[in-house]
Amino acid sequence: MTYGPIDFLALEFKGNKFKGEILPALLELVQNKIVRVVDLIIVQKDEDGKHRAFELQQLDTEVVRIFDPLEFEVSGIIQVEDIEMIAELMENNTTAALILFENLWAIRFGEAAQRANGRMVMYDRIPFEVVNETLETFAKAEATA
Prior knowledge:
Oligomer: single chain
Order of helices and strands: EHEEHHEHH
Largest sheet: 4 strands, antiparallel
Shape: globular
Distance between the termini: 52 Å
């Protein structure tokens, strides 16, 4: 079986209540078979800087229901070391979603490249903040030229 590249994403939200506002966008990606959620951990960091991590089955039924449409099983790939690293980066009184997702869109493309005797020389992800900031800088420079 061929797998697509897997990305690790940690999103931090102010407060310690995760309501699932981003779920519709993630669900759209899953339903369109663009990505597959491989693992998901929720980390809460209190006002004193102490953190707790929860796998999906450990969350309140109400929160679990938010994630039900994703139809995934916890793989256990996200390890304690990953959770500790993210907890160190989190601000106090925040909640983070740690998500591993497989890029399904890349499977057919990668297989086609292999059949054509292609060789990946480099693969890198440029964060959307960097892309947006760069394009804004270009637009401002163009507007003043």
